[in-house]
Structure formats: structure tokens, C-alpha cells
Design a protein that fits this description.
This protein is an alpha/beta fold. It contains 16 helices and 21 strands. The chain has two domains: 10-195, Flavin prenyltransferase-like (Rossmann fold), CATH 3.40.50; 197-409, Rossmann fold, CATH 3.40.50.10300. Helix content is 37%, strand content 22%. The structure holds ligand PMT.
Length: 415
């Protein structure tokens, strides 16, 4: 991820913030002292967590003096203070920065290993985590390391990519930790993102609906909920208050959302309308069944020669929202197999949306039950964008940025 340079105002975001600074055992550990100083100077409270190896490179006393706080390094010190250290540390943190992050620590995080205070704390972290990898160029290029970094990015960890340069081992190549100023800028940017949506109420629908035929059978579709849950997770980390109205899925709702579980389209209609007036942004990712059986049989239907089901239309939730829309930004999705553009634009207009996200579900890696998606966005002003294949989390962040732009254009006021 590329982070733009900060100006003076941007760094003001650090005032009063709580930063956890993790330091692992690499030669770049000495640069963490400068990073710590910059955070403190900008008004942040910095708590430092060091691995045993990090202490071989830089003294905890240096970090203690710069941060003006005790340095944490002992997983088992918890019992002495009657707190669960790794949980207590993360609870208070707005941002966790690990600089340098060695190949070893990155590998452990990717494997879910928690064998020291730093890795344990990372696993327990609820705030964004920013990693600044630093290692020998061959270690960096090793497929295992590249796979780990790819995995961490997909999980939502943030990276300040290492740069090419002369390494401590004498080699020249990629793997050198990014400049301290670059890491500092990335931290400010993340904190800004993390507060950008504070005070905003976001209503997201996800998953399929189920329309019962009898006590055993139902009509439904292939939606897994992944796209909607990714949106909820990212909006939450940006500071929004998120209500997630979801049909039946197999995924856990992100901790912190107001979760409303529904089964049928009619239940979703009711839940969505209840939350609509107080919402600033509404994103309808759910794959709602357009029809339901006219009759839900109380007993299991018996097998016969043929069976004719009479279906009646479900309410079009999004179309109803489009009619009632006041200040809300209203986003729809369209899962299409053909005539993508024509169908998506028709829905955009018919449902009075600000934009619609169309996925061609015949494409590999797009649409239902995948971790990735590839979409085209059609906007109310007639413009459009075609995006490449990306993870649903990356797409979620992209779409929220688009909404952010719309809010700015409208000089949107949070009330
Ligand atoms: O859940 P995943 O496995 O991650 O898959 C994601 C997805 C493919 C479900 C998602 O990306 C997507 O495309 N969702 C919309 C699915 C769809 O079929 O939409 P639609 O073309 O039927 O409806 C258009 C819009 O109107 C949607 O925003 C839908 O939520 C809404 N709608 C539709 C019918 C209805 N009765 N009420 C509605 O509100």
C-alpha cells in the first residue's frame, strides 16, 4: 500500500492517541527508537512491546526513556500484575505498529502462532496493525515470506513495504525497512482512516434470504455473506457504527457490529426499514429472493409425479428505500450473468441509487461465495468504473472510499 506524505495537520491526529509499538529482532530495531520519539513528540502515548531478540539489538531502557513508560517483554508478567497483559495492552490501543517486523514474526502471525508477548498481543489486537517488514532480500523474496505477506494483507493487516537498498548483511536489494518517516506517515494515515467514519451510521445487508416451501425445504441462492461482512468489517474499522442485517450464513459477524439476523425477504424488509431513517449510508449487498412460495406448507410435502409451486413477489427492499431516501447515500449490488451494463443501469435508475456495483457472476473469482470479486461500478451521474480482481476486503475499502468522495461532494453533514 502506498501512503501519501503527511503535512503538519495530518500528524495532529496522533495527539491523545495510544500507539502500541512492537519491536522484533532485526538490525533495523535501532530505528524504532526514532519512530517512538516521533510518535511521542506528536502527542501520542506509546507503549513498547519487545521480543527477546529485539533486546539483543536495542536496550529496553532506550525505549523506556523515550516512551516514558515501562517496556513490555514478558508474557508471564501478567500474573504479577493481575491483568491479562496482551489483552489489556490491545484494549487501550488505537494502532499497533510493528517496526521492524522480521521474517520470523511475520511467519508466526501468518501461522497464528502466539509464543511471546508481541505475537500474543497481535493475535488479540482489535485495532489496525501496521507492519514494517525488514529482512535480507532473499528471505523477503522467498515464496513462503511472499505468501505470508499476501495472507496478512488479505486478513486486513497493513504493510509499509520494505524498500531496496544496501542491507546490513552487505547485500543490496529489497528488504530494507521503509524510512521511519514513511512508517510514521502510514500510521497517521491509518489513524485518519480509522476515525474518518466516526459518527456515521452505516446499514449493510448481506447473505441470502430463505423462503420456506415447507418445514424441510426452502428457496434460496448461493450468497455466502462474504461481500457484505467484508464491508461491515471495514466500515467498522473506519469508525462507523454498523448495523448488519444478514440472512443465514456460516460466517461470524465482525465483533462490534449491531447484528440483526433474518431469514426471509419480508423479515429483511422490516429490519432494514426500522434502521433506514437513522442511517447515513446504506449498502445492500444481500441477494434477496425476488419470490416466495404463495403458501408455506405446515407439513412436509409428499413426493408426487410433478409439483407446481405458485410464487408471489417479495417486496423490493432497495426500491422502497430509493423512494424514501432523504440524505442517505444508497448503494446497491447486482449479480448478473448477461447484459451486465444494461441490467445494472436499469436497477440503478429504478431504485434511485447513488451507485450500483455489478458483478458478473459467470467470471472466475467473482460473485457468490468467493474471497475475491471483480466488479463494475455505475454511478448516478452516468460515469462508470471497471475494477480488476481483488479480495472482497479490498473491494470493500475501495467502495467505502467512493462513498467518502460522494459525501465530500455533497458536503455531507453528520447529525
Ligand atoms: O455473499 P457473497 O457470497 O459474498 O456474494 C456476494 C453477492 C454476489 C451476493 C453480491 O456481490 C451481490 O451481487 N449482491 C446482489 C445480489 C443480487 O442478485 O442482486 P439483485 O440484482 O437481485 O438486486 C439488486 C439490488 O436490489 C441488490 O442490492 C439487492 O440487495 C436489492 N434487492 C433485490 C431484490 C429485493 N427483493 N430486494 C432488494 O433489496
Amino acid at each position: 500500500m502506498k501512503f501519501p506524505k503527511n503535512n503538519q495537520n495530518d500528524t495532529a491526529i496522533l495527539a491523545g492517541k495510544s500507539i502500541l509499538l512492537g519491536i522484533t529482532g532485526g538490525i533495523a530495531a535501532y530505528k524504532a527508537a526514532e519512530l517512538c520519539r516521533l510518535f511521542v513528540k506528536a502527542g501520542a502515548t506509546v507503549r513498547v512491546v519487545m521480543t527477546t531478540a529485539a533486546k539483543e539489538f536495542i536496550s529496553p531502557l532506550t525505549l523506556q526513556t523515550l516512551s516514558k513508560h515501562q517496556v513490555y517483554d514478558d508474557l508471564f508478567a501478567a500474573t504479577k500484575r493481575y491483568t491479562v497483559e496482551h489483552v489489556a495492552l490491545t484494549k487501550a490501543a488505537d494502532l499497533f505498529v510493528v517496526a521492524p517486523a522480521t521474517a520470523n514474526t511475520i511467519g508466526k502471525i501468518a501461522a497464528g502462532i502466539a509464543d511471546n508477548l508481541l505475537t500474543t498481543t497481535i493475535l488479540a489486537a482489535r485495532c489496525p496493525v501496521l507492519l514494517a517488514p525488514a529482512m535480507n532480500t532473499y528471505m523477503y523474496k522467498h515464496p513462503a515470506q511472499q505468501e505470508n505477506l499476501r495472507k496478512l494483507k488479505a486478513w486486513g493487516y497493513h504493510l509499509v513495504e520494505p524498500v531496496a537498498g544496501e542491507l546490513a548483511c552487505g547485500e543490496t536489494g529489497a528488504g530494507k525497512m521503509a524510512a521511519v518517516e514513511e512508517i510514521f506517515a502510514a500510521a497517521c494515515r491509518l489513524l485518519q482512516e480509522n476515525t474518518a467514519w466516526q459518527g456515521l451510521k452505516v446499514l449493510i445487508t448481506a447473505g441470502p434470504t430463505r423462503e420456506a416451501i415447507d418445514p424441510i425445504r426452502f428457496l434460496s441462492n448461493h450468497s455466502s455473506g462474504k461481500m457484505g461482512y467484508a464491508l461491515a468489517e471495514v466500515a467498522l474499522t473506519w469508525g462507523a457504527a454498523v448495523t448488519l442485517v444478514s440472512g443465514p450464513t456460516h460466517i461470524e459477524p465482525p465483533p462490534g457490529v449491531e447484528f440483526v439476523q433474518v431469514t426471509t425477504a419480508q423479515e429483511m424488509y422490516k429490519a432494514v426499514l426500522q434502521h433506514f431513517d437513522s442511517s447515513h449510508v446504506v449498502i445492500k449487498t444481500a441477494a434477496v429472493a425476488d419470490y416466495r412460495p404463495a403458501v408455506t406448507h405446515k407439513e412436509k410435502l409428499k413426493k408426487g409425479e410433478t409439483l407446481t409451486l405458485e410464487l408471489v413477489p417479495n417486496p423490493d427492499i432497495l426500491a422502497e428505500l430509493g423512494k424514501r431516501k432523504k440524505q442517505q447515500i444508497l448503494i446497491g449490488f447486482a449479480a448478473e450473468t448477461n447484459n451486465i451494463e444494461r441490467n445494472a443501469i436499469a436497477k440503478l435508475k429504478q431504485k434511485n441509487l447513488d451507485f450500483i456495483v455489478a458483478n458478473d457472476v459467470t467470471q472466475e473469482g467473482a460473485g457468490f461465495n468467493t474471497d475475491t470479486n471483480q466488479v463494475q461500478i455505475f454511478y448516478a451521474d452516468g460515469s462508470r468504473k471497471r475494477l480488476g480482481l481483488m479480495t472482497k476486503k479490498e473491494l470493500a475499502a475501495y467502495l467505502l472510499q467512493e462513498i467518502e468522495l460522494l459525501r465530500k461532494q455533497r458536503n455531507f453533514i453528520v447529525n
